[in-house]
Design a protein that fits this description.
The chain is an all-alpha fold and 493 residues long. The chain is 70% helix and 0% strand.
Length: 493
Protein backbone atom coordinates (compact mmCIF):
# COMPACT_ATOMS: atom_id res chain seq x y z
CA UNK A 1 0.00 0.00 0.00
CA UNK A 2 2.79 2.41 0.95
CA UNK A 3 4.59 1.58 -2.28
CA UNK A 4 1.39 2.25 -4.27
CA UNK A 5 0.87 5.63 -2.54
CA UNK A 6 4.50 6.56 -3.21
CA UNK A 7 4.06 5.71 -6.89
CA UNK A 8 0.85 7.76 -7.11
CA UNK A 9 2.58 10.67 -5.36
CA UNK A 10 5.48 10.63 -7.80
CA UNK A 11 3.06 10.52 -10.75
CA UNK A 12 1.12 13.47 -9.32
CA UNK A 13 4.32 15.49 -8.96
CA UNK A 14 5.27 14.67 -12.55
CA UNK A 15 1.78 15.66 -13.76
CA UNK A 16 2.00 19.00 -11.93
CA UNK A 17 5.46 19.59 -13.44
CA UNK A 18 4.17 18.82 -16.95
CA UNK A 19 1.14 21.11 -16.48
CA UNK A 20 3.36 23.95 -15.23
CA UNK A 21 5.70 23.52 -18.20
CA UNK A 22 2.79 23.44 -20.66
CA UNK A 23 1.15 26.50 -19.13
CA UNK A 24 4.49 28.27 -19.04
CA UNK A 25 5.15 27.57 -22.72
CA UNK A 26 1.62 28.15 -23.97
CA UNK A 27 0.95 31.23 -21.88
CA UNK A 28 4.29 32.88 -22.56
CA UNK A 29 5.44 32.57 -18.95
CA UNK A 30 9.23 32.48 -18.85
CA UNK A 31 10.84 29.89 -16.62
CA UNK A 32 14.35 31.27 -17.17
CA UNK A 33 15.70 32.89 -13.96
CA UNK A 34 16.26 36.64 -14.19
CA UNK A 35 19.89 36.15 -13.13
CA UNK A 36 20.40 34.09 -16.30
CA UNK A 37 18.47 36.57 -18.44
CA UNK A 38 20.59 39.52 -17.40
CA UNK A 39 23.76 37.50 -18.03
CA UNK A 40 22.43 36.57 -21.47
CA UNK A 41 21.72 40.23 -22.15
CA UNK A 42 25.26 41.17 -21.11
CA UNK A 43 26.64 38.48 -23.43
CA UNK A 44 24.60 39.79 -26.35
CA UNK A 45 25.96 43.29 -25.81
CA UNK A 46 29.48 41.89 -25.64
CA UNK A 47 28.89 39.84 -28.81
CA UNK A 48 27.60 42.94 -30.61
CA UNK A 49 30.71 44.84 -29.57
CA UNK A 50 32.84 42.07 -31.09
CA UNK A 51 31.39 42.71 -34.56
CA UNK A 52 33.83 45.10 -36.21
CA UNK A 53 32.46 46.76 -39.36
CA UNK A 54 35.37 47.40 -41.74
CA UNK A 55 35.06 50.09 -44.41
CA UNK A 56 36.66 47.69 -46.90
CA UNK A 57 33.64 45.37 -46.81
CA UNK A 58 31.21 45.05 -49.69
CA UNK A 59 27.97 46.99 -49.03
CA UNK A 60 25.89 43.81 -48.77
CA UNK A 61 28.26 42.18 -46.27
CA UNK A 62 28.52 45.39 -44.31
CA UNK A 63 24.74 45.60 -44.09
CA UNK A 64 24.47 41.98 -42.95
CA UNK A 65 26.91 42.59 -40.10
CA UNK A 66 25.17 45.80 -39.05
CA UNK A 67 21.87 43.92 -39.13
CA UNK A 68 23.26 41.19 -36.89
CA UNK A 69 24.63 43.85 -34.57
CA UNK A 70 21.32 45.68 -34.21
CA UNK A 71 19.40 42.46 -33.62
CA UNK A 72 21.80 41.62 -30.78
CA UNK A 73 21.27 45.04 -29.21
CA UNK A 74 17.48 44.80 -29.62
CA UNK A 75 17.45 41.34 -28.06
CA UNK A 76 19.61 42.56 -25.18
CA UNK A 77 17.31 45.52 -24.54
CA UNK A 78 14.28 43.21 -24.51
CA UNK A 79 15.97 40.96 -21.93
CA UNK A 80 16.98 43.92 -19.77
CA UNK A 81 13.39 45.19 -19.81
CA UNK A 82 12.24 41.79 -18.51
CA UNK A 83 14.76 42.13 -15.67
CA UNK A 84 13.37 45.49 -14.50
CA UNK A 85 10.51 43.73 -12.67
CA UNK A 86 12.68 42.97 -9.62
CA UNK A 87 14.45 45.34 -7.25
CA UNK A 88 17.65 43.30 -7.55
CA UNK A 89 18.17 43.96 -11.26
CA UNK A 90 15.97 47.01 -11.90
CA UNK A 91 18.61 49.72 -11.67
CA UNK A 92 21.29 47.68 -13.41
CA UNK A 93 18.94 46.85 -16.31
CA UNK A 94 17.91 50.48 -16.84
CA UNK A 95 21.55 51.58 -16.71
CA UNK A 96 22.56 48.96 -19.30
CA UNK A 97 19.72 50.00 -21.63
CA UNK A 98 20.78 53.64 -21.30
CA UNK A 99 24.38 52.75 -22.13
CA UNK A 100 23.25 51.04 -25.35
CA UNK A 101 21.08 53.97 -26.42
CA UNK A 102 23.75 56.52 -25.56
CA UNK A 103 26.54 55.10 -27.68
CA UNK A 104 26.69 51.80 -29.63
CA UNK A 105 23.11 51.86 -30.95
CA UNK A 106 23.87 54.97 -33.02
CA UNK A 107 25.98 52.86 -35.40
CA UNK A 108 22.96 50.71 -36.29
CA UNK A 109 20.12 53.21 -35.86
CA UNK A 110 19.20 53.26 -39.58
CA UNK A 111 20.31 49.87 -40.78
CA UNK A 112 16.97 48.09 -40.45
CA UNK A 113 14.81 50.81 -41.99
CA UNK A 114 15.38 49.45 -45.51
CA UNK A 115 12.13 48.14 -47.07
CA UNK A 116 13.80 45.13 -48.71
CA UNK A 117 12.33 42.93 -45.95
CA UNK A 118 15.50 40.83 -45.77
CA UNK A 119 15.74 39.04 -42.41
CA UNK A 120 12.46 40.71 -41.44
CA UNK A 121 14.08 44.13 -41.41
CA UNK A 122 10.88 46.09 -41.93
CA UNK A 123 9.64 45.33 -38.42
CA UNK A 124 12.36 47.50 -36.88
CA UNK A 125 11.94 51.29 -37.00
CA UNK A 126 14.70 53.71 -37.84
CA UNK A 127 15.85 55.91 -34.97
CA UNK A 128 17.31 59.41 -34.94
CA UNK A 129 20.19 60.43 -32.69
CA UNK A 130 17.92 62.78 -30.74
CA UNK A 131 15.45 59.95 -30.08
CA UNK A 132 18.23 57.68 -28.84
CA UNK A 133 19.67 60.35 -26.55
CA UNK A 134 16.21 61.02 -25.12
CA UNK A 135 15.76 57.30 -24.45
CA UNK A 136 19.19 57.14 -22.83
CA UNK A 137 18.39 60.06 -20.52
CA UNK A 138 15.04 58.48 -19.64
CA UNK A 139 16.64 55.21 -18.54
CA UNK A 140 19.56 56.95 -16.80
CA UNK A 141 17.06 59.05 -14.85
CA UNK A 142 15.19 55.93 -13.78
CA UNK A 143 18.49 54.49 -12.52
CA UNK A 144 19.13 57.71 -10.57
CA UNK A 145 15.65 57.68 -9.04
CA UNK A 146 16.12 54.10 -7.84
CA UNK A 147 19.39 54.74 -5.97
CA UNK A 148 20.86 58.24 -6.48
CA UNK A 149 23.92 57.85 -4.24
CA UNK A 150 25.05 54.42 -5.44
CA UNK A 151 27.63 53.56 -8.09
CA UNK A 152 25.20 53.26 -11.00
CA UNK A 153 23.20 56.25 -9.79
CA UNK A 154 26.32 58.42 -9.73
CA UNK A 155 27.42 57.22 -13.15
CA UNK A 156 23.94 57.85 -14.52
CA UNK A 157 23.99 61.44 -13.25
CA UNK A 158 27.32 61.99 -14.97
CA UNK A 159 26.06 60.49 -18.23
CA UNK A 160 22.90 62.65 -18.19
CA UNK A 161 25.10 65.71 -17.71
CA UNK A 162 27.42 64.63 -20.55
CA UNK A 163 24.52 64.08 -22.95
CA UNK A 164 22.93 67.46 -22.21
CA UNK A 165 26.21 69.40 -22.39
CA UNK A 166 27.33 67.65 -25.57
CA UNK A 167 23.98 68.13 -27.32
CA UNK A 168 24.04 71.84 -26.48
CA UNK A 169 27.65 72.08 -27.65
CA UNK A 170 26.80 70.38 -30.95
CA UNK A 171 23.86 72.73 -31.59
CA UNK A 172 25.87 75.83 -30.71
CA UNK A 173 28.84 74.71 -32.82
CA UNK A 174 26.57 73.96 -35.79
CA UNK A 175 25.18 77.49 -35.52
CA UNK A 176 28.71 78.94 -35.57
CA UNK A 177 29.71 76.74 -38.52
CA UNK A 178 26.66 77.73 -40.59
CA UNK A 179 27.23 81.44 -39.97
CA UNK A 180 30.67 81.51 -41.60
CA UNK A 181 31.22 84.05 -44.36
CA UNK A 182 32.93 83.51 -47.69
CA UNK A 183 35.72 85.76 -48.91
CA UNK A 184 39.28 86.78 -48.01
CA UNK A 185 38.65 89.82 -45.82
CA UNK A 186 39.47 89.80 -42.12
CA UNK A 187 35.86 89.39 -41.01
CA UNK A 188 35.35 86.38 -43.29
CA UNK A 189 38.60 84.78 -42.12
CA UNK A 190 37.53 85.18 -38.50
CA UNK A 191 34.23 83.40 -39.16
CA UNK A 192 36.03 80.65 -41.10
CA UNK A 193 38.45 80.13 -38.23
CA UNK A 194 35.49 79.95 -35.84
CA UNK A 195 33.79 77.46 -38.18
CA UNK A 196 36.89 75.27 -38.16
CA UNK A 197 36.98 75.24 -34.37
CA UNK A 198 33.24 74.53 -34.35
CA UNK A 199 33.67 71.41 -36.50
CA UNK A 200 36.45 70.24 -34.20
CA UNK A 201 34.27 70.84 -31.13
CA UNK A 202 31.42 68.90 -32.73
CA UNK A 203 33.77 65.95 -33.24
CA UNK A 204 34.91 66.15 -29.62
CA UNK A 205 31.32 66.26 -28.38
CA UNK A 206 30.41 63.19 -30.40
CA UNK A 207 33.46 61.43 -28.97
CA UNK A 208 32.32 62.19 -25.43
CA UNK A 209 28.95 60.65 -26.28
CA UNK A 210 30.56 57.59 -27.86
CA UNK A 211 29.05 58.35 -31.28
CA UNK A 212 32.23 57.52 -33.14
CA UNK A 213 31.09 57.55 -36.76
CA UNK A 214 29.48 60.97 -36.31
CA UNK A 215 32.77 62.17 -34.79
CA UNK A 216 34.69 60.84 -37.80
CA UNK A 217 32.33 62.69 -40.13
CA UNK A 218 32.98 65.99 -38.37
CA UNK A 219 36.77 65.54 -38.29
CA UNK A 220 36.85 64.55 -41.98
CA UNK A 221 34.69 67.54 -42.90
CA UNK A 222 37.16 69.83 -41.15
CA UNK A 223 40.16 68.31 -42.95
CA UNK A 224 38.39 68.52 -46.32
CA UNK A 225 37.04 72.08 -46.03
CA UNK A 226 39.96 73.67 -44.17
CA UNK A 227 43.06 71.68 -45.26
CA UNK A 228 45.46 74.54 -44.46
CA UNK A 229 44.21 75.11 -40.92
CA UNK A 230 46.40 73.94 -38.02
CA UNK A 231 43.54 71.72 -36.83
CA UNK A 232 43.43 69.78 -40.12
CA UNK A 233 46.31 67.34 -39.42
CA UNK A 234 45.11 66.86 -35.85
CA UNK A 235 41.59 66.09 -37.07
CA UNK A 236 42.81 63.64 -39.69
CA UNK A 237 44.96 61.93 -37.06
CA UNK A 238 41.93 61.67 -34.80
CA UNK A 239 40.04 59.95 -37.62
CA UNK A 240 42.69 57.23 -37.64
CA UNK A 241 42.62 56.98 -33.86
CA UNK A 242 38.84 56.52 -33.78
CA UNK A 243 38.96 53.81 -36.44
CA UNK A 244 41.88 52.00 -34.77
CA UNK A 245 41.01 52.23 -31.08
CA UNK A 246 37.21 52.62 -30.98
CA UNK A 247 35.85 50.88 -34.10
CA UNK A 248 38.76 48.42 -34.49
CA UNK A 249 38.87 49.02 -38.25
CA UNK A 250 42.42 48.62 -39.55
CA UNK A 251 41.46 48.63 -43.25
CA UNK A 252 42.77 50.83 -46.05
CA UNK A 253 39.42 52.63 -46.16
CA UNK A 254 39.36 52.87 -42.39
CA UNK A 255 42.10 53.55 -39.85
CA UNK A 256 45.08 52.55 -41.97
CA UNK A 257 44.07 54.82 -44.82
CA UNK A 258 43.36 57.68 -42.42
CA UNK A 259 46.86 57.54 -40.94
CA UNK A 260 48.41 57.28 -44.42
CA UNK A 261 46.59 60.51 -45.34
CA UNK A 262 48.15 62.23 -42.33
CA UNK A 263 51.64 61.13 -43.37
CA UNK A 264 51.13 62.08 -47.02
CA UNK A 265 49.07 65.28 -46.78
CA UNK A 266 50.75 66.91 -43.79
CA UNK A 267 54.40 65.91 -44.14
CA UNK A 268 55.83 68.67 -41.98
CA UNK A 269 53.36 68.30 -39.13
CA UNK A 270 53.93 66.70 -35.74
CA UNK A 271 50.99 64.37 -36.45
CA UNK A 272 52.70 63.10 -39.60
CA UNK A 273 55.66 61.76 -37.60
CA UNK A 274 53.27 60.22 -35.08
CA UNK A 275 51.30 58.53 -37.85
CA UNK A 276 54.40 57.04 -39.48
CA UNK A 277 55.64 55.61 -36.17
CA UNK A 278 52.21 54.24 -35.30
CA UNK A 279 51.80 52.57 -38.70
CA UNK A 280 55.16 50.81 -38.39
CA UNK A 281 54.37 49.48 -34.90
CA UNK A 282 50.84 48.48 -35.89
CA UNK A 283 52.06 46.67 -39.01
CA UNK A 284 54.44 44.60 -36.89
CA UNK A 285 51.75 43.81 -34.30
CA UNK A 286 49.00 42.95 -36.80
CA UNK A 287 51.38 40.79 -38.84
CA UNK A 288 52.32 38.86 -35.71
CA UNK A 289 48.66 38.34 -34.83
CA UNK A 290 47.95 37.01 -38.33
CA UNK A 291 50.90 34.60 -38.18
CA UNK A 292 49.79 33.20 -34.83
CA UNK A 293 46.21 32.86 -36.08
CA UNK A 294 47.46 30.94 -39.12
CA UNK A 295 49.52 28.71 -36.83
CA UNK A 296 46.45 27.85 -34.74
CA UNK A 297 44.44 27.07 -37.87
CA UNK A 298 47.25 24.84 -39.12
CA UNK A 299 47.08 22.56 -36.07
CA UNK A 300 43.32 22.72 -35.49
CA UNK A 301 41.22 19.61 -36.03
CA UNK A 302 38.82 21.03 -38.63
CA UNK A 303 36.32 18.19 -38.26
CA UNK A 304 36.14 18.53 -34.47
CA UNK A 305 35.76 22.31 -34.71
CA UNK A 306 32.96 21.94 -37.28
CA UNK A 307 31.14 19.51 -35.00
CA UNK A 308 31.39 21.97 -32.12
CA UNK A 309 29.95 24.77 -34.28
CA UNK A 310 27.01 22.47 -35.00
CA UNK A 311 26.34 22.33 -31.26
CA UNK A 312 27.86 18.94 -30.52
CA UNK A 313 30.09 18.56 -27.49
CA UNK A 314 33.74 18.02 -28.35
CA UNK A 315 36.33 17.41 -25.63
CA UNK A 316 39.21 19.92 -25.63
CA UNK A 317 41.80 17.24 -26.38
CA UNK A 318 40.13 16.62 -29.75
CA UNK A 319 40.33 20.22 -30.98
CA UNK A 320 44.04 20.36 -31.74
CA UNK A 321 46.62 17.96 -33.09
CA UNK A 322 48.54 15.93 -30.52
CA UNK A 323 51.92 17.33 -29.57
CA UNK A 324 51.13 20.94 -30.45
CA UNK A 325 49.01 22.04 -27.49
CA UNK A 326 51.82 23.99 -25.79
CA UNK A 327 52.48 25.74 -29.08
CA UNK A 328 48.79 26.59 -29.43
CA UNK A 329 48.78 28.04 -25.90
CA UNK A 330 51.70 30.29 -26.83
CA UNK A 331 49.89 31.35 -30.02
CA UNK A 332 46.79 32.35 -28.07
CA UNK A 333 48.85 34.28 -25.54
CA UNK A 334 50.72 36.09 -28.32
CA UNK A 335 47.48 37.01 -30.09
CA UNK A 336 45.87 38.29 -26.88
CA UNK A 337 48.97 40.35 -26.08
CA UNK A 338 48.95 41.73 -29.62
CA UNK A 339 45.34 42.83 -29.38
CA UNK A 340 46.15 44.46 -26.06
CA UNK A 341 48.93 46.46 -27.75
CA UNK A 342 46.32 47.60 -30.27
CA UNK A 343 44.07 48.52 -27.30
CA UNK A 344 41.48 46.12 -28.69
CA UNK A 345 40.27 44.84 -25.33
CA UNK A 346 37.21 42.95 -26.68
CA UNK A 347 39.38 40.83 -28.98
CA UNK A 348 41.99 40.30 -26.28
CA UNK A 349 39.38 39.16 -23.74
CA UNK A 350 37.77 36.89 -26.32
CA UNK A 351 41.15 35.31 -27.08
CA UNK A 352 41.84 34.57 -23.42
CA UNK A 353 38.34 33.10 -23.06
CA UNK A 354 39.00 30.83 -26.04
CA UNK A 355 42.28 29.73 -24.46
CA UNK A 356 40.64 29.02 -21.09
CA UNK A 357 37.84 27.01 -22.70
CA UNK A 358 39.67 25.19 -25.50
CA UNK A 359 42.79 24.27 -23.53
CA UNK A 360 41.37 23.38 -20.13
CA UNK A 361 43.97 20.66 -19.66
CA UNK A 362 46.76 23.23 -19.25
CA UNK A 363 46.07 24.42 -15.69
CA UNK A 364 48.72 27.15 -15.60
CA UNK A 365 47.68 28.64 -18.95
CA UNK A 366 44.02 28.58 -17.93
CA UNK A 367 44.63 30.34 -14.60
CA UNK A 368 46.76 32.96 -16.35
CA UNK A 369 44.03 33.51 -18.96
CA UNK A 370 41.36 33.91 -16.27
CA UNK A 371 43.51 36.46 -14.44
CA UNK A 372 44.12 38.38 -17.67
CA UNK A 373 40.37 38.48 -18.40
CA UNK A 374 39.65 40.12 -15.05
CA UNK A 375 42.60 42.49 -15.41
CA UNK A 376 41.58 43.61 -18.91
CA UNK A 377 38.02 44.27 -17.81
CA UNK A 378 39.39 46.33 -14.93
CA UNK A 379 41.71 48.31 -17.22
CA UNK A 380 38.77 48.99 -19.53
CA UNK A 381 36.67 50.32 -16.63
CA UNK A 382 34.24 47.38 -16.68
CA UNK A 383 34.51 46.83 -12.94
CA UNK A 384 31.50 44.53 -12.53
CA UNK A 385 32.80 42.25 -15.28
CA UNK A 386 36.24 42.36 -13.67
CA UNK A 387 34.76 41.23 -10.34
CA UNK A 388 33.01 38.36 -12.11
CA UNK A 389 36.23 37.47 -13.94
CA UNK A 390 38.24 37.28 -10.73
CA UNK A 391 35.47 35.21 -9.13
CA UNK A 392 35.73 32.72 -12.00
CA UNK A 393 39.43 32.31 -11.27
CA UNK A 394 38.70 31.57 -7.60
CA UNK A 395 36.22 28.87 -8.66
CA UNK A 396 38.25 27.21 -11.42
CA UNK A 397 41.85 27.82 -10.31
CA UNK A 398 41.85 28.40 -6.53
CA UNK A 399 45.55 27.51 -6.32
CA UNK A 400 46.57 29.94 -9.05
CA UNK A 401 49.71 32.02 -8.56
CA UNK A 402 47.48 34.98 -9.39
CA UNK A 403 45.06 34.28 -6.52
CA UNK A 404 46.47 36.86 -4.10
CA UNK A 405 46.60 39.55 -6.79
CA UNK A 406 43.00 38.81 -7.78
CA UNK A 407 41.74 39.04 -4.18
CA UNK A 408 43.24 42.52 -3.86
CA UNK A 409 42.12 43.75 -7.29
CA UNK A 410 38.59 42.44 -6.72
CA UNK A 411 38.45 44.46 -3.49
CA UNK A 412 39.63 47.53 -5.44
CA UNK A 413 36.81 46.96 -7.94
CA UNK A 414 34.24 46.60 -5.16
CA UNK A 415 35.41 49.91 -3.74
CA UNK A 416 35.14 51.43 -7.23
CA UNK A 417 31.48 50.44 -7.53
CA UNK A 418 30.76 51.62 -3.96
CA UNK A 419 30.21 48.15 -2.50
CA UNK A 420 32.13 49.17 0.60
CA UNK A 421 31.31 46.22 2.84
CA UNK A 422 32.50 43.74 0.20
CA UNK A 423 35.58 45.88 -0.39
CA UNK A 424 36.33 45.91 3.35
CA UNK A 425 36.01 42.13 3.56
CA UNK A 426 38.15 41.75 0.44
CA UNK A 427 41.00 43.87 1.78
CA UNK A 428 40.91 41.98 5.10
CA UNK A 429 40.97 38.66 3.26
CA UNK A 430 43.97 39.81 1.24
CA UNK A 431 45.87 40.77 4.39
CA UNK A 432 45.09 37.39 5.96
CA UNK A 433 46.85 35.64 3.07
CA UNK A 434 50.18 36.71 4.55
CA UNK A 435 49.62 34.28 7.42
CA UNK A 436 52.55 34.03 9.79
CA UNK A 437 55.03 34.79 7.03
CA UNK A 438 56.50 38.13 6.16
CA UNK A 439 54.05 40.64 4.75
CA UNK A 440 56.60 41.34 2.03
CA UNK A 441 55.25 38.40 0.04
CA UNK A 442 52.05 40.40 -0.53
CA UNK A 443 52.68 43.20 -3.01
CA UNK A 444 49.81 45.41 -1.83
CA UNK A 445 49.79 44.60 1.90
CA UNK A 446 50.45 48.17 3.03
CA UNK A 447 47.81 49.59 0.68
CA UNK A 448 45.26 47.04 1.93
CA UNK A 449 46.16 47.76 5.56
CA UNK A 450 45.66 51.47 4.95
CA UNK A 451 42.23 50.84 3.40
CA UNK A 452 41.13 48.59 6.29
CA UNK A 453 42.21 51.20 8.84
CA UNK A 454 40.27 53.87 6.97
CA UNK A 455 37.17 51.68 6.71
CA UNK A 456 37.28 50.89 10.45
CA UNK A 457 37.31 54.52 11.58
CA UNK A 458 34.35 55.85 13.58
CA UNK A 459 34.94 59.59 13.77
CA UNK A 460 31.54 60.52 15.22
CA UNK A 461 31.47 57.70 17.79
CA UNK A 462 28.01 56.46 16.82
CA UNK A 463 29.11 52.82 16.72
CA UNK A 464 29.12 52.57 12.93
CA UNK A 465 32.41 52.21 11.10
CA UNK A 466 33.27 54.38 8.11
CA UNK A 467 32.57 51.66 5.52
CA UNK A 468 29.10 51.08 7.03
CA UNK A 469 28.31 54.79 6.82
CA UNK A 470 29.56 54.87 3.23
CA UNK A 471 27.49 51.82 2.35
CA UNK A 472 24.29 53.51 3.60
CA UNK A 473 25.12 56.99 2.36
CA UNK A 474 25.32 58.54 5.84
CA UNK A 475 27.92 60.81 7.43
CA UNK A 476 30.73 59.62 9.71
CA UNK A 477 31.00 63.10 11.24
CA UNK A 478 27.43 63.44 12.48
CA UNK A 479 26.35 60.91 15.17
CA UNK A 480 22.67 61.58 14.41
CA UNK A 481 23.18 60.70 10.73
CA UNK A 482 23.71 56.95 10.85
CA UNK A 483 22.26 53.81 9.21
CA UNK A 484 19.81 53.09 12.06
CA UNK A 485 18.32 56.59 12.07
CA UNK A 486 18.15 56.52 8.29
CA UNK A 487 16.11 53.31 8.36
CA UNK A 488 13.74 54.75 10.97
CA UNK A 489 13.18 57.90 8.92
CA UNK A 490 12.44 56.00 5.72
CA UNK A 491 8.72 55.61 4.90
CA UNK A 492 7.32 52.17 5.62
CA UNK A 493 6.31 50.12 2.59
Amino acid sequence: MAKKLLTIGILNVLMVYVVVMLIGCAGGISVVPLSVKIQNADRKVEAAGMIAISNDLEPKKRRELLTDKRILYDDAIALYIECTVTDKYNQRAHFRIAEIYKSPYHEVKLILSDPTNEKGLSKFPARTSDELWDLAVEHYQTAVDLAPTGYLGSRSKGSISDIRKSRNQIQESLRVYRNQLSGDDDRAKQTQDAATQALYDIGESYMKLGNYREAIGSYEKLAAEFPDHELAPRSQFKVGNVYFYKLYDYSNKGGWGAFVKVAQNYEDSFESKQAETLLKKSAHTLTGIKQDQDDINKYTNKKAMAMRRMGRYVTPDKLYQMGFRDRIVQNYQNIAAGWQKMENFPNSVFCYKELAYNLRGNAFAVSDALYQIGRLYQLDGQLENAISGYETLFEISPQSIWRDECVYQQAVCYRGIREFELAYEGFKTYMSLAGSHSIEKLRYYREADQMVRQFEQDQDGDGFMFYQEQEDGTSDRDPDDNPDNKKESEPQA
